[in-house]
Amino acid sequence: MAASAFWQIVILLLVAGAISVPVGFYIAHVFMDQKTVLDRLLDPVDRLLYRIIGRNTVSRPMDWKGYAVNILLTNLLMGLLVYLVLSWQGHLILNPLHFPDVNPLLAFNTAASFITNTDWQNYMGESTLSLFSQMAAVTFAMFTSAATGIVAAIMFFRALASQDGGQNLGNFYRDFVRVLTRIFLLPCLLITPILVWQGSPETLTAMTVAHLVQGGIQHIPTGPVADLEVIKHLGTNGGGFFGANSAHPFENPTPLSNLIEMLLMMATPMALVVAFGRMVDNKKLARVMYSVMALMLVATLFVAVTSEQAGTPLLAHAGLMQQAGQGQMGGNMVGKEVRFGVTQSAIFDTVSTAFGAGTVNSALASYTPMGSMASLAQMMLNCVFGGSGVGALNFLMYGIFAVFIAGLMVGRTPEFLGKKIEKREIVLASLALLTHPVIILIPTAWSLVSPYGLSSLGGGGSHGLTTALYAFTSAAANNGSAFAGLNGNTPWYNASLGLVMLLGRYAPILFMLALGGSLAAKPAVQATFGTLRTDTALFGGFWFAVIMIVGSLTFFPGLVLGPIAEFFALHAHYMF
Amino acid sequence: MNEMTQKSERKAEAYHAQTSGLVRRAVINSFKKFNIRVQISNPVMFIVWLSMFVTLALTFKPALFGKSAMSASYNGFVTAILFFTVWFANFAEALAEGRGKAQAEALRQTKTDVMARRIAADGTLQTVAAGVLRKGDRVRVERGDIIPTDGEILEGIASVDESAITGESAPVLKEPGTDMFSTVTGGTRILSDWLVFKVSADPGHTFLDRMIHLVEGAKRQKTPNEIALTVLLSVLSLIFMVVVVTLKPLAGFLHIDLDIGSLVALLVALMPTTIGALLSAIGIAGIDRATRFNVLAMSGRAVEAAGDVQTLILDKTGTITMGNRQATEFVALPGHSDAEMATIAMLASWYDTTPEGRSIVALALTKGVKHDAGWDQAQGIDFTAETRMSGTNLPDGRKARKGAVAAVARYVRDDFKGTIPAELKEAADLVARRGATPLALAMDGDVIGVIGLSDVLKPGMRERFEHMRGLGIKTIMVTGDNPITARVIAEQAGVDDFVAEAKPEDKIRVIRAEQARGRLVAMTGDGTNDAPALAQADVGLAMHSGTVPAKEAANMIDLDSDPTKLIDVVAIGKQLLITRGALTTFSIANDVAKYFAMVPAMLMVALPGMATLNIMRLATPESAVLSTLIFNAIIIPFLIPLALRGVRFRPASANVMLARNVLIYGVGGLIVPFVGIKVIDLVLSPFLH
Fold first, then answer.
1. Closest residue of A to B244, CA-based?
2. Per-residue model confidence as pLDDT tens digits over B23-39
3. Helical H runs in B494-538?
4. DSSP alpha helices (H): ranges in B163-254?
5. Distance of CA B634 to the CA centre of its chain
6. Which of B236, B238, B250, B466 would best serve as a mutation to test chain A binding (most A beta carbons within 10 A)?
7. The pLDDT of residue B8
8. Which residues pair with B138 in a beta bridge?
9. Closest to A506 measured CA to CA, from A470, A478, A526, A474
10. How far is the CA of A459 from the CAs of A335, A365, A405, A487, B254, in angstroms?
11. Confidence of residue A574 (pLDDT cuts 50, 70, 90)
12. Whose C-alpha in A76, A530, B286, B560 is 20 to 30 A from the C-alpha of B207?
């Protein structure tokens, strides 16, 4: 790895880590109802919103069922709203370019995509969505879907710390409002101007006509981009205003905006781990989790950046120099923006798949096989920090299995944070575990045998297989990162990806909330010398091994047939 | 201790004598277990069982699912390996069940055709079959009879041979009115005299019935933890099924036609068959281990719960101490030599047959006191509640007395007008401060000194409590002694806490207090007044010598009536869970090697680059698949002894234990299959050409 790339990774991780600690403390304060500096500013805002929702509604204590039902109903309503806005956009305001209504299947896919925090896009934003849709359907859902993930995690954390049998795990509406006002609002207000300063447009003009020096005119689509960019990353959403996503100069104009967007993606998932430690009163455990996640992130960053920098063996065989050097970016520059180069592109896309955002500043389809496998693997694990809230939940799900097996090995009925892990917990965690591979592998296999699935694939061979596998992995992980090369706007992919996104989102959340409720209902067992300690490096290592063996080996055959086969073929100077 | 060793030796001999028969029986039973109704209760092995039929069909018709490159003989080979995989699992379970079955058989024999003399309302005796007796009937048994059913003794005194149940050949004296030894158990034999008892159990509910049921484990309920693990293993199997089923179209997209036989082989290899095959054997063997310790667990759940125990509540008397106080020191008052003190102490106890008296004589003997022939003509004075003294009257009229300090002082003052030296109180206090009970010793009007009687700890208790502490288990001693004595004993024994001047109802209070703090509590008991506490405790171990209510409230019964068994039971429970966890870890860790053996093998022909992933350098794809499957099968019998014996359990902190077991079974589980599969491949590949 080039020294500059090494330092870019180190500095990025250090800055992100430094941000995550105070933000984590702040989040814990907010959800443990402790005073924060922003109270005086935000209390009146909250009170106003509480009054609109209804004072009784926001003050009622909820158990896991109440919480889960309200999450589902609210999401259903918001999903319908997004669907309706898209379906009727031709008849609604702020449609200066007179885009027609979005067709029902694409509208379903898009609504499912944004409400589930996936932001998979089977359309080009600048040529499909009205400005109203961009704001009321896309940007709106970006706030609420991220908030949904965060409150689910918060309820789970509270359940682990619950002393009253889980009767009061907070109030969904109150938590939801507080995520929006206390976590999202201020960064959005403060960072949007910075992106505008860097070159992002923030306007209600949909199209600027440029008269070119060489004659002729160019239509340049614009719109309220900068504000969308902030919540797109802060909420680990990842859906672009433009089809090119963060590779587009309006979405991500400069290396500085590139850095800001990465830090925004990393902020909440990392901070939530810190907040977890505070909320369950076990900072050492949070440190273990944070370290395991960070090590997995570093490993994938290393793989992605080195393989992109190494370039492709085919070009090397053709005698082309791919080393970085004087005036030479080096490496695999195909599909990458010159203003970011190989390193910043590889780091950005890897971070984006790790943190569940799925935003891209380069084309993954033209990555080297190992570079794209790094992204694919992270979505398969779905807990390398992961998306807002859900990443921590997934990591804790693996923790339940790790505790169960390791707990047996010390001769006790396994317990996690003093709560016994018994049949019900294992059933629920198993269902959550099962969901991910099932909704990835079965639709992928179906797409590879059905004519309507095959017709959308750009190519055959391992690369084509990776394309389909990547699409469903991204949808199931609610990541939204797109491999490109797949024509997703077909009835089959709109419907199947939409369903996979919904299942990938709500099934695990529901199972984990039920798991939380089940743990909360148990009396805490006092820890003794004979209790398995989960806050040690040893257990962290075991946890990691469980994630690798239980979580990732499942996908080994798929990876072997996809990127790994492509890798070997490439080295045998053969291309799919 | 010596007796214990002999007993375990006897058991070991009997065990060896049984073993050959057990194996033969297990072989027979393992074939019976191929029945679908048995297989379906174990989802992992059920899938292997089904897979066996798929490959069997392919053996007869290789092209059943379309064109196949695999020959009938190859499919037949795979079928045979799968057959052995299932058979090994059956064998493990049958072997684990075998010992209990044999024991139940022996117990049943003691039950058959017993006749009983029932006492009718008019007092006459009727001879009826034991099966006719109902709760509340009165029955008379005499020398040589087999006691027909369980009961509480009303009249008589008799010695009873309970070896049929406890394995202990020394007879037990039974009499009414005491908490201990006032019950009889059906199936035991009365050796002398007679008894009249009231029947306490209806047919089918006697202790013997329950015991047969338990050791046989016929309708064994899976424990909650076992169910949870079964769920996890089933879901992993389900995930692997999805992986294998989708692998065919995925590979098909690359124009690789994967053979159904190979896919079935991959599925079996990836599923956690090792733990799946041994899971039920581990559970049965765990209960069997408790039974071999002569502890009868009412359910597998009770044994598991024992492993979770965080607090042990132990009676002082009989559990921590020998049960009788013994003389441990002589303190002579000024003006009297130590030798004189010891001699008079021995004299005063010469006719005292209580254990305390014997212990004074024993202590005096160690001080070199010789027995005086004149004592044989002396007269022993027994202890009475009135005098609270005992002693010896010599023929020359001298009187030696020992007793409670106040009683002896009054005796000296009143009968001899003697003076009480001020040092007496000092000496008595000194002894009391050391946790001993002081006895004053007087010769006529002269106070000689103070004898200290102490509780004597059972040997090895301190070490056992240290082990417990190492496991994070807190020990609480409950005693009726005063706090000073209790503290001293607690310190000597090394228990963590004690409750002094405890009344029987205090036990349940202590248990509730501990449980409220989120701890799991175990206790032992034998009396009827222990029954509520035994029921309240998470693990209640009743003594077989105890009363019926105590035994019914408990979830374990110790047939040897040795309260310290509780400590062994905790170890058995832990060992059971550790064995399960260790083999699960081993089984899952094996998958890494299996993936690296099978996946490249299956794809190597179509994708030559895959040869790079064949890191074991297995000879051919066929050999790779078969070697992996063979490894998968033969690892089961290799691990049967471990599953039955349990993973070696050394008390240590949880972290040390985890580190050790992860190293052995986790890292070992990663490495062993790489080596094993490679070795099998080396042996096998020459034959495949």
1. A557
2. 888 899 999 999 999 89
3. 504-516, 531-536
4. 163-166, 207-216, 224-253
5. 31
6. B250
7. 47
8. B119, B198
9. A478
10. 17, 11, 43, 11, 11
11. low
12. B286
Quote the CA–CA distance of A176 and A71 in Å, as a whole number: 9
Instruction: Assess A567–B contact: CB distance below 8 Å, yes or no.
Output: yes
d(CA B465, CA B495): 6
How far apart CA B410 and CA B420 sit, in angstroms, is: 9
Residue B7 has pLDDT above 60, yes or no: no
Question: Distance between terminal CA atoms of chain B?
Answer: 63
Q: What's the pLDDT tens digit per position in A259-289? A: 999 999 999 999 999 999 999 999 999 999 9
Please, is A291 exposed, middle or buried when counting C-beta atoms within 10 Å of its C-beta (0-12, 13-18, 19+)?
A: middle
SS3 per residue for B123-181: CCEEEEEHHHCCCCCEEEEECCCECCCCEEEEEEEEEEECHHHHCCCCCEEECCCCCCC
- Chain A to chain B, count of Cβ pairs less than 8 Å apart? 207
- Partner B contacted by A413 (CB < 8 A): yes
Q: Which of B449, B414, B408, B453 is nearest to B435 (CA)?
A: B453
β-strand partners of B475? B312
DSSP per position, A413-436: --EETTEE--HHHHHHHHHHHHHH
Q: Helix B224-253 to helix B273-292 angle, to the nearest 10 degrees?
A: 170
Mutation target vs B (from A163, A376, A560; most B CBs, 10 A cutoff)? A560
Tokens of B300: 């597998």
8-state DSSP, B299: -
Residue B231 has its nearest CB partner, among A407, A423, A446, at A423
Active-site entry in B288, B315, B352, B562: B315
Residues of A in contact with B254 (CB under 8 A): 461-462, 465, 561, 565
Shortest CA distance to B384 belongs to which of B370, B404, B356?
B404
List the structure tokens of A194: 């910075």
- Between A179 and B532, the higher pLDDT residue: A179
pLDDT number for residue B5? 44
- Angle, alpha carbons A289-A293-A298 (nearest 5°): 145
B13 has a pLDDT exceeding 60: no
Instruction: Please determine, for residue A158, whether its predicted confidence score (pLDDT) is greater than 50.
Output: yes
Residue B1 clears pLDDT 70, i.e. is over it: no
- Residue A462 scores a pLDDT above 60: yes
Q: What was the pLDDT predicted at A520?
A: 95
Identity at B308, one-letter amino acid code: D
**Both tokens assigned to B362:** 């024993």
B674 CB neighbour count, 10 Å cutoff: 18
Q: Give whole-number Cα distances, A143 to A153, A176, A271, A357, B530, in Å.
A: 16, 10, 17, 13, 62
Give residue B373's pLDDT.
80
- DSSP character for B458? P
- Interchain CB distance below 8 Å, A410 and B246: no
ipTM of the complex: 0.94
Query: What is the Cα B557 distance to its own chain's centre?
Result: 10
pTM of the predicted model as reported, rounded to 2 decimal places:
0.87
B517 in contact with A, Cβ within 8 Å: yes
Query: In angstroms, rounded to a whole number, what is the distance separating the alpha carbons of residues B648 and B637?
Result: 18
Mean pLDDT calculated for residue range A195-209:
94
Cα(A541)–Cα(B279) distance, rounded to whole angstroms? 26
In this predicted model, what pLDDT tens digit does every residue of B43-61 receive, in sequence order?
Answer: 999 999 999 999 999 999 8
SS (H, E, C) B552-596: HHCCEEECCCCCCHHHHHHHHHHHHHHHHHHHHHHHHHHHHHHHH
Residues linked to residue B455 through DSSP beta bridges, in sequence order:
B325
Q: Active-site residue B315, yes or no?
A: yes
Question: CA-to-CA distance for A348 and A245, rounded, in angstroms?
Answer: 12
